[in-house]
Fold this protein.
Amino acid sequence: MQPTGNLHIGNYLGALKNWVRIQHDYECIFCIVDLHAVTVYQDPAELRAKINETAALYLAAGIDPTDCAIMVQSAVPAHAELAWMLTCVTPIGWLERMTQYKIKAAKQESIGDGLLQYPVLMAADILLYQAGIVPVGEDQAQHLELTRDVAQRFNSLYGDTFVVPNTSLPTVGARVMGLDNPTQKMSKSATGLNHAVALLDAPAKIRKTIMRATTDSSPAVDFETAGPGVLNLLSIYQAFSGEPDDAMQARFTGMRYGDLKKQVAEMAIAHLEPFQQRYREITADPAYLAAILRDGAERVAPIANSTVRTVKQRMGLYT
Ligand code: AMP
């Protein structure tokens, strides 16, 4: 995750919740991508604080640092080093086609080179560790495809070097939409007051945002004809609760939208209140957090350095 803005329930349901679910099934590395954050200007003091906040949110969600590595991207220089080598095998046309680049570039007066290179750095984050599976929300699927293309291109130019990774999307919650506008994905950078539920929002704020969510002109839930706003609320409920489709239908069919929103809000609060309590406990001990990030970087650096060494050898660079 990028340590910018306020992490929201889209980040949680699309990514973080699934990381917690699979963390003991694989050897996992969870990165806080601060080098990605600076592809657009960040206030330095705020960025530094957000790195710690993001790490604390990973822990509060239930990532177990004794089993998984939690690390900050800029603490392992191999990320930037590999990104350069991958840049040199990536056609610029592949990058110009990226939807996220087009959206972000449209918001800038002058487009920084880093914004275009963003997916190459992301490919480096993944390929450095020879990752087999990358669990992300749907908005990252295109970048994962690019990562696969870059890995394959490198392998065909220089011989088998990288594992070609697979994308893992959640079945529900892969694309949580804005509550104020269900045709746009929920995003940290959107400015609308009722756009997102942030993971650290107080219960009263969560209730208010969800109660104001856009629905449609029908009075009650009909799964056959529901518009995007109602479908978004239903999928938020289902992603939090894990309830199967038939139970969802039985619970919500014919329910008035006001009652649907109340149930969604209470479900979100029931999950986020204990989460926020853990967050407060974790942030009360900054030394603990710093030790986890240091340990995470120390654990992964040998893997990353070994990949960079191999890549340099394959390319004929100085080792
Ligand atoms: P980012 O905030 O861009 O660093 O994204 C962190 C993770 O959250 C990525 O895996 C994204 O795919 C996921 N994510 C971000 N926004 C959403 C959303 N609205 N719905 C589902 N997943 C999301």
In short: The longest helix spans residues 286-315. The two ends are 32 Å apart (CA to CA). Residues 1-2, 10-11, 14-15, 136-137, 139-140, 174-176, 185-186, 188 surround adenosine monophosphate (CB under 6 Å). The mean pLDDT is 97.
